[in-house]
Amino acid sequence: MSARQRRALFVCVGNACRSQMAEAFARAYGADVMTPASAGLRPASQVMPDTIRAMLEKNLDVRDHFPKDLRHMMRLHFDFVVNLSGLPLPDCDAPIREWAVPDPVAMSYEDHCAVRDHIEQLVMDLILELRREIKPNLRGQGSGRLKL
C-alpha cells in the first residue's frame, strides 16, 4: 500500500451483495488510491448468486469472496467507512460516509444489476474524489505546461 492509498471499509447488512460489489469495483478501479475491504452487520453464509453473476458481467469475479463480520473487521484500521446498509453502524474510529443504496438481495436480476450499476458509479465518484485529494493542483504553475 502506498502512502497515498486510504484504507476503505464498505459495509452492508449481509456482506453478500452491496458491500461485496463496492469492494470489487474499488479494488479493480481504484487500487492507486485505496485498499478496500467489506463487511456485514449480520453476515450471510455466502455471496449471493445474482451478485456473482452481475459482477461477472462487468468482468469482475467475486466467486472467491465471502461474507465477513463487521465486528471482526473493525479490529483493523480504516481511514473511512462507507455504510450502504441503511442502518446505524456501531461506534467506529473512522469517519463514516452514508450511501443510500437499496438492498438487491430479493430483487429481480434486472433490478440487482441496476443496483450494481449505481454502486459502480458511486465507487467511481469516490475514486475520483480521492485522486483529486492526492493530485497536486497543476493549474497556474510554471509556464502553463503540464509536467508529467
Structure overview:
This protein has 148 residues and is of the alpha/beta class. The protein has one domain (6-134): Response regulator (Rossmann fold), CATH 3.40.50.2300. It has helices at 18-29, 49-56, 70-73, 109-134, and strands spanning 6-12, 34-40, 80-83, 96-98. α1 links the parallel β1 and β2 (34-40). α1 (18-29) crosses α4.
Keywords:
single chain; 148 residues; alpha/beta; Rossmann fold; four-stranded parallel beta sheet; 4 helices; 34% helix
The class by helix and strand makeup works out as alpha/beta
Treating each run of at least 4 consecutive H or I residues as one helix, how many helices?
Answer: 4
User: Which strand-content bin applies to the residues?
Assistant: 5-15%
Portion in helices: 25-40%
Total count of domains = 1
Please provide the ordered H/E string of secondary-structure elements: EHEHHEEH
Computed Rg:
16 Å
User: What is the highest CATH level, the class?
Assistant: Alpha Beta
Which helices and strands occur, and which strands form pairs?
Elements: E1 6-12, H1 18-29, E2 34-40, H2 49-56, H3 70-73, E3 80-83, E4 96-98, H4 109-134
Parallel strand pairs: 1-2, 1-3, 3-4
Helix pairs in contact: 1-4, 2-4
Short description:
With 148 residues, the protein is of the alpha/beta class.
